[in-house]
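Dear colleague,

Thank you for sharing your sequence with our group. We've completed the structure prediction you requested, and as agreed, I am returning the results in plain text so they can be pasted directly into your records. Please verify that the sequence below matches your submission; if there's any discrepancy, let me know and we will rerun it promptly.
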Amino acid sequence: MVRLESGHCELSSEINDFRVGIVCRGAYSQVGENMENSAEDTELSLHSGHHLASAPQATFYALLERLHSVLKGPFDRRAVWQLRRQIDQQTTLLHEVKSALAGAELFERASVTASMGMWQCKLPGDQLTWSNGTYDLFGLQHSRGLVRSDILRSYTEESLVRLEKLRSEAIESGSGFKLDAEIRGPDIGKRWIRIFATVERRNGEPLGLFGIKQDISEEKAAFEHIRHLAEHDVMTGLANRTQFQVQLTKICHGSGGALMLIDLDQFKQINDTLGHGVGDECLIEFTRRLTTICQNADLIARIGGDEFAVLFSPAIDRPAIETVAKRLVSAAKAPMNCSGSSFSIGASIGLAFAQGETPTALFTKADQALYAAKACGGNTFQG
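Please find the predicted structure tokens below.
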């Protein structure tokens, strides 16, 4: 052993041992097990003259070569002291590297659990580097080589256009961006991801982009479900009155179209005699018939208890709409079989064609035509 005390240096008979072999082998094992691009299959030889180029291995191996030279030559107290100091410093560095790798591994594991991953794209050349979590988002094997043009094929057309636009603007301005994009793949189906991106610059020149990608499919599905409930009738699944008003305004302020209002005849009597449960079944069955006949409509909505509205674009002319109205009258009169009860109802229909009116004026015109049809005894259309 080497002892440094009271200004004296004493070299024991085991100096060639020097505990260096133990320290070196242990440190080498830590580097080999924990560092990326480690020399797992390379034998450590002090006589080989070979070094790994990556830090801190290169520094560490150079230290071993110097130690070997000192041990071969005559005893030099100062040289041994300097070596001891360098070994202590290198040991500290290795502990720091080990801690950093442990932290990186913990972050990687947490990222995978949170369905997210890190990414980097170097410029120019678009060289991609992904963490395991990002590979998982796209349903790719971790060992697969990355080519950006291939990855872009995973994005839907709409998402890809937005991604490329935001990316170009970010590179030009040096700012970051956030984007919710839809991707598809044979192993993942459809998936929504949220992309966070930051641009790295040096002397005003972009060096690359890096950031995080996260799976937000569940968040997107929950949002769409809430929006659907806000815009649709719960029982029939048709658009509700709120959504109808939005589309009616678009027709009146756009290129025009037509409005059809439908009110069921004898429906109140069904509710009063057979109960609301049977009445609900009746509404659901009529909805099925209505959607089958009005497949070319822009919107079908339930706007009241037994009131429905259908909006048509200008591409559907009056004769075609009148044919639809006749078919609906016949469909409503067909027998209903609900909860073991068989009965018939009817339908009165009012038509109105947009000619520059306000939404309120167009609705009023269709409503007046509806009441005219009821005044004729129902089971018919007017307008």
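Summary note from our side: The longest strand covers residues 189-202.

Kind regards,
the structure core
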